[in-house]
Amino acid sequence: MKTPREILLKRHEAANDKLDAVQKNAMAEAFPPERRVSGHRPTRTFDFGWLQGLFQFTPRTWAALTAVWILIFALKLSTRQETHVVSTKSRQSGEMTAAVRDQRLFYAELIGLRQPEQADRPKTFAPGPRSELRLANSLA
Amino acid sequence: MLVMAERETLPVAQAKVGEPAAWDVLFRRYRLPLYVYVFELVHNEQTSLDVVQETFIAATKHVRSLRDEGKFGSWLFGIAHQKCIQRWRSQGREDFLREEIGASPEEFEKDPGEILIRREQEESFMNLLNQLPPPQRAVLLLHFIEDFSLEEIAEVTCVQVGTVKSRMHYAKKSLRKLLKTNENTA
Fold first, then answer.
1. Cα distance between residue A98 and residue A131, in whole Å
2. Is B144 close to A3, i.e. CB distance below 8 A?
3. Complex prediction ipTM
4. By CB distance 3.0 to 4.6 Å, which of A40, A105, B136, B164 could disulfide with B171?
5. What three-state secondary structure class fits A112?
6. Rounded CA separation A45/A32 (Å)
């Protein structure tokens, strides 16, 4: 008498030859010959299996995260460049304004429109005593 | 002939880190039982060989997802079972997945022990197995081939334990009826 297991396995024993080929194919797929010969453990290129174990992320998730980080860096770089351009431009415009002003003053002096000493002297307004102000206001 | 120990030690931990020698041991241990299981479901030699190969390749790629190394066998059979279902669906054989199960018996009969089959009953046993609906056949095969527990069979076939109990009950009932009939006629 036999158990059902014995009957089933015995019935299909002849498939062992073909299963040898199946095993060979599966091993070749999982462990290509060049990796086995070198003796080191088979690793797939871009194998993030250990990362998966650590963070339980799929490769797709990692790719998405990487893309997000690249975008963040790109945005940061572009804003830094803009700031640099803006500060450079503002510096340049300030310098240009001063240069234009100096040039006007120079031309003005040339054609005699202003006296350089007077122009350079800042106009100051010294308020008078209160009584004089009241008189000035009442007359106005 | 394969002999199943109560708790066999298989090199699953080594297989997880990619040791080819460990996979060689695991392939040799499971390749025939897996083939028998698949063949008795799909009844096609080439398809069965393809499914076994695909199952092992998938196992080498995804073994790191296996939490409990002691459940390597049921995990492997679960992959094979899903591949069989995919084959049936692609062939439009969704009726294979359906079964008519009567109301669950309140009390399933206690398992009187191992079923032993006489030589002259072997053909009848195989005929009966082939006549069972695939869901019941799958449960019985997993029980006979690898002696999986009800919980493991439920995981392999992705159904609840109660459903496995019900299927097992009806399948074994049919089998015992057949064996008794043969005894009486013999």
1. 42
2. yes
3. 0.83
4. B136
5. coil
6. 12
pLDDT score at A62: 85
- Whether the pLDDT of residue A51 is over 80: the answer is no
Query: For residue range B104-163, what is the model confidence (pLDDT) as tens digits?
Result: 554 444 455 567 888 888 888 898 888 888 899 999 999 999 999 999 999 999 999 999
Contact B17, B50 (CB under 8 A): no
Show Cβ contacts of residue B84 under 8 Å, excluding neighbours closer than 6 positions.
B38, B41, B42, B51
Range list of H helices, chain B: 12-16, 20-42, 45-62, 72-90, 122-131, 134-146, 150-157, 161-185
For A105, counting Cβ atoms within 10 Å of its Cβ (0-12 exposed, 13-18 middle, 19+ buried), the class is middle
> How far is A51 from B100, CA to CA, in rounded Å?
46
**A23 closest CB neighbour out of B31, B144, B147:** B31
Longest Cα–Cα distance of chain A, Å, equals 139
pLDDT above 70 (res A90): no
Q: Which of residues B89 and B6 earns the better pLDDT score?
A: B89
Residue A3 contacts residue B114 (beta carbons within 8 Å): yes
Q: How many Cβ atoms are within 10 Å of B182's Cβ, its own excluded?
A: 15
The shortest CB-CB distance from A15 to any of B2, B35, B118 is to B35
Going A30 to A36 to A41 to A47, the CA torsion angle's sign is negative
How far does the CA of residue B29 sit from the closest CA of chain A (Å)?
11
Q: How far is A35 from chain B (nearest CA, A)?
A: 10
